[in-house]
Amino acid sequence: MLSLFAHLSLTPSSRPDNPTHNPKLHSNPTHLRKDPILTRQQNEFDLAGKNYSGAGASPEEERSSIPDGLRRELMPEHVAVIMDGNRRWARMRGLPSGSGYEAGIRAFRVLVELCCKWGIRVLTVFAFSSDNWVRPKMEVDFLMNLFEKGIKAELDNFMREDIKVSIIGDPSKLPTSLQRLIARVEKNTKHNTGLHLVVAVNYSGKYDIVQACQSIAQKVKDGLIEPEEINESSIEQELETNCAEYPYPDLLIRTSGELRVSNFFLWQLAYTELFFSKSHWPDFGEADFVEALVSFQQRQRRYGGYK
Known about the structure:
Elements: H1 23-27, H2 36-48, H3 59-64, E1 78-82, H4 86-92, H5 97-118, E2 122-129, H6 137-160, E3 164-168, H7 176-189, E4 196-203, H8 205-221, H9 232-236, E5 251-254, E6 273-276, H10 286-297
């Protein structure tokens, strides 16, 4: 769930300051063999060019196309993704962890492109959990650096594709330069009207509820509201997802076969449909996304009632 925006020209597995760099592995000729999954992902990325519109067709044609078996009117408005399995993907191939993150970046770009094409309004990705700070400092610093460079590299694409970007989570522990960059990208894209990309960085579902309660308590203290006036709507207005037109995910996808939500959107997932994919995040492509969407469209959402 880490470092999603690192620019593809970066090769984290080969950088000397990468804590996962393994000189012996890189000196092994077998490391030079092309992984078929990486090759497939690179081909998909090459087709997309340097933006999210696809190739060989106009943006209008691309956005109007939809795979067989899916109905545009039943598309979820908001899809959230816990992108899990980057490091396990790399270990299974005898590669350093950085290679898993690099492959995960390609999967992320493909997902953004598909959401733009198929009319999904909000995509939230869990980029960095507040629980991830327990990892080695060198690894965290490395990933923060990649995250910062990646946002800079993607800013032009966000503007070209009319993507609005919001960053949610507690920014206080992030590097100062990254905090400034987050403010810049949010300011530059705030008037975009296409896909709303919400990136959760140093985010905790528990803390989101706590900070909402703290905000309400302050309003009570200031005499703006009375305690008996507090209701579900009061809390929902203070959650960080209130930045989105559709703040609650219709569909949550978690990859790598793990069956838990890992302190993510604990309030917002009350009526969300859950889909757990066995694919590790770098392997998650269009076919996997279609499978999740077909599953979603076949369900009846009752919200506690009958249909």
